[in-house]
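Notes on consecutive records. When two proteins share a document, each keeps its own sequence and its own token line. Never mix them. Below: protein one.
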Amino acid sequence: MRTLSRRMDSVIAFGIGAIVLAAAFVFGDPIYAGAWYYLIAWFALVGLVQIAKAPPLLTTGAAMALAGSFLFYWTWQASLPQPQGLLGLGHLFSLPGLGIAAVMAAVAVRRRRARPWMAFAAGLVACSIGFVVAQIVACRFLMYCGALSGQIG
């Protein structure tokens, strides 16, 4: 069985990003962020994880978490009776949590010398949790996010 390299892991992660970007072009950009936002988010995530010397498949797990965050926001925008033009700011303010979690997962998985499937799971779960925690902070203290902001007052 051939082992997966970090380079191939990055290629897979960028492939996931290309699919998300293609979906935004084909179906429209529900969060009005523009292609530059998706590209910068992907390059930043893959760059951070590779700088942290993540083991193979962690980058793919982190990319899946980022794709899931975009899909969450697209679905949220579609569920609103009237489109929200600044909804993408909530996503932007939550990306630091995803990035920090990605680096922490990369360091932890590298130190434990985990298998690739474990690195994938760690990347996916850690980045998802990091995004959600940052989302809660952003929606409670930085901006109004509708139902995600909780009871104000």
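Protein two starts on the next line and is unrelated to protein one.
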Amino acid sequence: MSLTFTMPSVDEITALYGPLRTVLSDSRPVDIQPELDAVYSLEILGGKTLRESVINGETGPALIIRLVEYVDPVTRAELYGVEKWSVVGFRTVDHWVRLVSETEFERLVRAEFAQPTLPPVVSGSSAAW
């Protein structure tokens, strides 16, 4: 006998714990002051990677989805960020509850697999579409 647990959706989790905060984005509004984006970028890049999904191209990563534990540079609180970076664009969200960020990470990876955001052929890519 085996047990299967159903992961709650991002909507269900955020209904319990509050919404994700958009920290960095190339095309959407963010929830932090614009002058703090470099500081947040450094903290997130230097954070502890908990999970990562990567698609490599000929010259390096073409898409990275990463769950990271980091310290908020303003409040000094421990947060869990989910960053999606690709040759197309970037967005980073965070939350103080790891489960919320874990659920968002899973959603992004599954969504990328279901409907890729990269062009179908990334030169020299090892990814199969």
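For the record: The first helix runs from residue 10 to 17.
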